[in-house]
Each structure stands twice: as structure tokens, then as C-alpha cells.
Amino acid sequence: MTKKVFYMLWIPFLLAVSGCFEGTESEPILLPERISAFALYPNDVAANDSASSYVANGLQLLVHPEVTYSLSFDKDPAIAENPTLQLFRLGSKVDGGKVMTKHVRTLRPHEENGRLVYKFLCEENDRNVWVTTLSLNGEYYRGTTRHARLEASGPYSDTLSINLIVTGRVDFYESDMDEKLFAKMLLKNFRKYYTSIVIDTLYVRYAHEHPTLGGKYPADVPWIAGRSSGDYFVSELGGWPEAGLKNALDIVLVHRIEMEWVLGYSLMYSGNLYGGPGSTVVIGAYNKTPSGESGLPSASMISTAIHETGHFFGLRHTTATQADFEVDSDFSNYEDGFTDTPYCADLLKSGLLKRNIGPASDFVLPLAHITYATSDNEFNVDQCPDSRNMMFPAVNDEGMDGFTAQQLAHVRKNLMVFPH
């Protein structure tokens, strides 16, 4: 049985903050003393215990324009008064390893079922990262902030187009396969599994035909992400400058990826359907191994694309791996938080995939998810109750059942949060 294993990479962002205090004497602005490496993402239902503990001072929030948000956490019964929430926009880096912040909002909560709820509308022009502090009587809030959630409701469409960008020469493992037939199969399977959204059209474009970048991507040379160029994500190809394509999901097809056993990757909760960094899902037709490279069946490439797109729209693994914990550092997130996706305790005990590798990224947010192939057969994934879910971290060639109802609802909700 062939296995592929998926895991995540946190990009830590532990920077001091500089800026000016604003506000009235009765309501001083309390800047984050330090920005936490932890973050809350739109509609994420994982436990996020570590992130929850930083709401009072330095928690990151991923926000998108024209989206209504609700940040909430359990009210501390030991503290009668409710704190105000202060939100700050992260700006550019400055000298001394610091980053500028700008105060954007001060909010008072309402109580709802034992929770403090802060609602706000993001009026940014682009996606951004906001940082939180909680203030009570002019000082940082010292109460507990358990079970924090960032719920989001967006105004955007639940319809999505896909742009398959063929980069360089791609020689498929099957002799009768080409990019046109692969694209047809890819569209069929996206529509089969992503039933909560409308997959409108799948376009095929060629990197060598890009109107401004085409000369960098010769058609007759196999493109190796991470070696042919330093950008593993080939992100400059995202946001294809053509009507109908600029706000599509960009899946970049390359010959292979310049890391052993890595078949594909994406940024979880990327939310970027309009080009630039974080706008691409990358898949390879071949797999780099210690002895060379091996071709991948088209079915394997398609399952990789579907799985990585799930991460792009905010789906976690149903069961975390040791590698997930190594980079996430939040051991409460051993499963995805959905009640209709079981998790596999035996997989966690097995220690499968203890190694941590990943492409370099300048992103503050979010997580980089990687498709990883291994010949490790010491653990039988078939014994796991979630082994046939599309977001299980180890997938075999016998096929997948797809997504659950809650996973599909999550994808639809987040698609409507991501501008397109």
C-alpha cells in the first residue's frame, strides 16, 4: 500500500511592537507587548487552547475585506466586569526587529450563553493580520480567555473557477495522459467531492504563454519548484491576468518539487484568490526520492490537489501527526474539531512522520501544508476510523470517501469569506 502523508508548518512571528499610544485618558490604548506566534483563523473549530490564552495580549487574527467577524471566548466567572477589545493592524517592519501597528478598533462585548462576544466589520482593502489586546480599567486584562473562536460571515459568491497552470514540460506517468485529459478528470473529481460549492469552469493555461512572465517559463524544460526558481509556490503565476481567471483558484502543475517525497503543498486558510503570495496550490507529476524520481498516477495527483485545496479553504487534518505538533506547538489540536470526523488515537501513538520539512516563506500567516509521500509501512492506516476521509493525513491508493457534511459546510462558508 502506498501512503502519502500531509502535515503543516508554522511560520513563527515573534516580533516586538512599536507604535504610538492613542485614545482618551479614560480609555488608553494598550499596544500588544509582544505578538504571539499563535493565531485564530476564520471559522476554525479546532480546540486552539494555546491561541485562546493570548487574546489579552498579542493574538493574531486573519481578516478579509467586507467580512463580518465575531470574536468570542468563555467569560471568566471570577471577574464581574467585562474587558474591552482593542484591535491593531500589523504594518511594515522597522529597525530593531520590530513591526509597526495601527489601532483600528475598540469594542465592548455583549454576553451570550456564558461567552463574551465582540462583533466587527473588517473595512480593509485586502486581507490583513490584526492583533488583539484586552483592556480592563486601563490595564491588560488578567482573566482567562478559554475556547476562543473567530467566526466569519462573508458577502462573496459560493461559486469557484479553477485555473490549472501547466508550468514547463510535464511528462505524465501514464503514457496515454496529457494535460487536457488530466484537466477533465480534475474538474470531474472536484465537482464530485466539493458538493457544497459550485465549481464553475476549469481553465488550462500554460506558464510559457503568460503575457508578461512567459519568457521565464520555457515550454520544453521540466519545471522543478524550488530549484528552477527559489519560490516553491511559483506564486507570481497566481492571479492570471485574463478575464475570468484573475480570481480563480490557481493550481500550478510542475514536473516535481525539489524536496524528497513532497508531492504538493498549499497555505492553509490562505484566502487569496486574486494573485500574489499564498494564491497557489502546487502539485507535481513526479516525486523526488533518494534514488532519483518516480512518476505519480494521475489519480494520486488529483487526490493531492483536492486535499491541498481543502487546506487552502481551512480544513485541518482529521488527525494530527507528530510533525503537525512539532510545528504547530498546540497539542490541543490533535483533531480538527468537527463532530462528524473521528480521529485516530493509534496514529498519534505511532509517531508516524516525526520529521519536519517545508519550503521557506515570508508569510506571517498562515500554515503551509505539504503533501508528503513515504514508504513507511510500520503503521496500518486502514485501522483508523477516519482513514478514508479526504483530510486524513495518510492516504492510500484504494480511494477516499471524500468530505463530511461539516467539512463541506466549512469550505462553503470560507469561500464566501475569501474575496473573489
Outline the structure in words:
- The protein is α/β, with parallel strands linked by helices.
- The protein folds into two domains: 3-9 and 156-415, 3-Layer(aba) Sandwich (Collagenase (Catalytic Domain)); 16-153, Jelly Rolls, CATH 2.60.120.
- It has helices at 49-52, 179-193, 298-312, 322-328, 345-350, 405-415, and strands spanning 3-9, 16-18, 39-40, 57-63, 68-74, 84-94, 98-107, 110-112, 115-121, 128-136, 139-140, 149-153, 159-166, 198-206, 224-225, 249-254, 256-257, 262-267, 280-284, 286-289, 292-295, 368-374, 394-395.
- The strands form five sheets. The protein has an eight-stranded mixed β-sheet, with helices on both faces. Strands 2, 3, 4, 6, 7, 10 and 11 form a seven-stranded mixed β-sheet that branches.
- α2 (179-193) packs across α3.
- The longest helix has 15 residues, at 179-193.
- The chain starts with a strand and ends in a 5-residue tail after the last helix.
- The model is unreliable at 1-25 and 355-367 (pLDDT under 50).
